[in-house]
Write a structure and sequence with these properties.
8-stranded antiparallel β-sheet; 8 strands; 37% strand; globular
Length: 125
């Protein structure tokens, strides 16, 4: 969904930060879905094209400057992590080209990306 039709998204044309790049690489290395070598090779070609406006660090990617096609979500990696003592979920999607980070308890306060050292697998169902 583009920011034109979703007020929760804002245009944001910029390169990935080093931390975003590190988190994406970690999620790819520890994910269980997708073609990891191909996706890992795309990291240097990613940029951020939109960001969430709620205060979470969710971003939507462009590959080689073009938005990643939205032909259905395809989950690559899904983990838990901790940011400032708060548990968050962190998900990487291939088809939508996004890195979603959400507060598990729910918060209206802004928060950042977790350190990869706090990232862990989801518990079994």
């Amino acid at each position: 969904m583009s920011s034109m039709s979703d007020p929760a998204l804002a245009p944001c044309e910029r390169p990935l930060t080093d931390h975003e790049r590190e988190v994406v690489a970690w999620l790819l290395e520890h994910g269980t879905y997708g073609d990891r070598p191909t996706l890992h090779a795309q990291i240097p070609r990613l940029s951020v094209r939109e960001r969430c406006t709620c205060g979470c660090p969710t971003v939507y990617f462009a590959l080689d400057g073009k938005p990643v096609p939205k032909k259905g979500e395809r989950l690559v990696s899904d983990h838990l992590a901790t940011v400032d003592g708060m548990e968050v979920g962190i998900m990487l999607f291939e088809k939508n080209g996004d890195l979603k980070v959400y507060s598990c308890p729910g918060t209206d306060q802004p928060f950042g990306l977790p350190d990869t050292g706090s990232t862990r697998p989801l518990p079994p169902p």
